[in-house]
Design goal:
alpha+beta; about 110 residues; Translation Initiation Factor IF3; four-stranded mixed sheet; 4 strands
Length: about 110
C-alpha cells in the first residue's frame, strides 16, 4: 500500500477534506458536523463483525477523506484484505506501531 504524509486538521474553519464542516460519509441529515479525522477503536466492535464493520465505515468515506483505526494488534490481515478488495483506492499510514496500540490512518484516494 502507498504511504501518505499525515496532515494537520484545521477544524470547522478549514474545510480541508480532513473533516472540517464536511461529512466524510454519505451526507447524513442529522445536522451534526465532523471535526478532524474520526478514530475508530476496533476493539469495541464484536469480533464476528469487526472486519465487515470497518469496511462499511471505509466505504462511507468520500475520496480525500480519512479515518484512523486503532487496535491492540497489528492489523496486517485487514490491510491485506483492503488491498485485495480495493487496490490503490485506499492508502494506509501507520501513526503508532504498538506495543499496546496500533493506529493507522486510512485515506480513500479514489
Amino acid at each position: 500500500m502507498a504511504h501518505i504524509e499525515l496532515q494537520q486538521t484545521h477544524g470547522a474553519e478549514g474545510g480541508d477534506h480532513q473533516g472540517g464542516d464536511h461529512h466524510g460519509g454519505g451526507g447524513c441529515a442529522c445536522g451534526e458536523t465532523d471535526q478532524g479525522v474520526p478514530e475508530l477503536d476496533v476493539q469495541t466492535i464484536p469480533h464476528a463483525i469487526r472486519h465487515a464493520s470497518i469496511f462499511g465505515a471505509l466505504s462511507g468515506l468520500h475520496p480525500g477523506f480519512a479515518l484512523i483505526i486503532s487496535a491492540t494488534h497489528d492489523p496486517v490481515p485487514l490491510l491485506m484484505q483492503l488491498e485485495q478488495r480495493y487496490g490503490d483506492a485506499y492508502s494506509a499510514t501507520y501513526l503508532d506501531r504498538g506495543p499496546e496500540r496500533w493506529r493507522i490512518l486510512i485515506r480513500r484516494e479514489s
